């Protein structure tokens, strides 16, 4: 079955970077975009950006421009989201989600990765 | 950026009630509107896409309608397992700049 499995929880200090992975299975990795969405505790969903695994093309929400990088390793069907210059406000659960290229919904989500930023 | 506004932000209803949640876009998004359900501690789940298409496996008591700027998610007969937070999302923007509504928390009375 279609599945996205994310890496485990992380604890980081302010100013550090974090890299979260998202391993896809059950479908052709290069046929669907991977989006990243985060959710602070008790808050709503915030879209961060997308990546097309086939081309490597990316698009980031303005809020995260310059701090986020989305990449992939096609050989292991894995997408990555790296967020730098972490601050306490970045403490959140980070989700990857699949969507067909274009203006399509996210039909499969990873289980989420909790990133805690604390000194 | 396109802003999405949901109402109400929370509601309480009885089992068997008809429940309606609305979502308004700050500009026309045609029918590029999706609805998700999120239960506590879980990832969101796609319910409705393209404003009114039911995702495979989703119970038929869920339905969506609307186009342009105003959209509605309806649960025809509320069940206990429907307790969750519901989010709308626009996927109209190009280049891709997707946004979610702030969410509607649904509880059983």
Entry summary:
The complex is a heterodimer of chains A (119) and B (109). With 119 residues, chain A is mostly beta strands. In chain A, 0% of the residues lie in helices and 49% in strands.
Description:
The complex is a heterodimer of chains A (119) and B (109). Chain A is built from no helices and eleven strands. By secondary structure, chain A is an all-beta fold. Chain A starts with a strand and ends with a strand. The model of chain A has no long low-confidence stretch (mean pLDDT 96). Chain B has 109 residues and is mostly beta strands. In chain B, the strands form two sheets. In chain B, strands 2, 4, 5, 6, 9, 10 and 11 form a seven-stranded mixed β-sheet that branches. A four-stranded antiparallel β-sheet of chain B has the order 1-3-8-7, with no helix packed on it. Chain B has strands at residues 4-7, 10-13, 19-25, 33-38, 45-49, 53-54, 62-67, 70-75, 84-90, 99-100, 104-108. Classes of the chains: A mainly beta (119), B mainly beta (109). At the A-B interface, strand 5 and strand 9 of A face strand 4, strand 5 and strand 10 of B.
Largest interface: A-B, 22 and 27 residues
Query: What is the succession of H and E elements of chain A?
Result: EEEEEEEEEEE
**What is the gyration radius of chain B calculated from CA atoms?**
13 Å
Structural class of chain A: mainly beta
The helix-and-strand class of chain B reads: mainly beta
Any low-confidence stretches of chain A, pLDDT <50, length ≥5?
none
Overall pLDDT of chain A, averaged?
96
Bin the helical content of chain B. under 10%
Kindly, what is the distance between the CA atoms of the first and last residues of chain B, rounded to a whole number of angstroms? 36 Å
The protein's oligomeric status is: heterodimer
Distance, first to last CA of chain A: 40 Å
Give the overall shape of chain B: globular
Amount of helix of chain A:
under 10%
Largest sheet of chain A: 7 strands, mixed
Q: What is the N-to-C succession of helices and strands of chain B?
A: EEEEEEEEEEE
Unreliable stretches covering 5 or more consecutive residues of chain B: none
Rounded mean pLDDT score of chain B: 96
Number of helices of chain B: 0
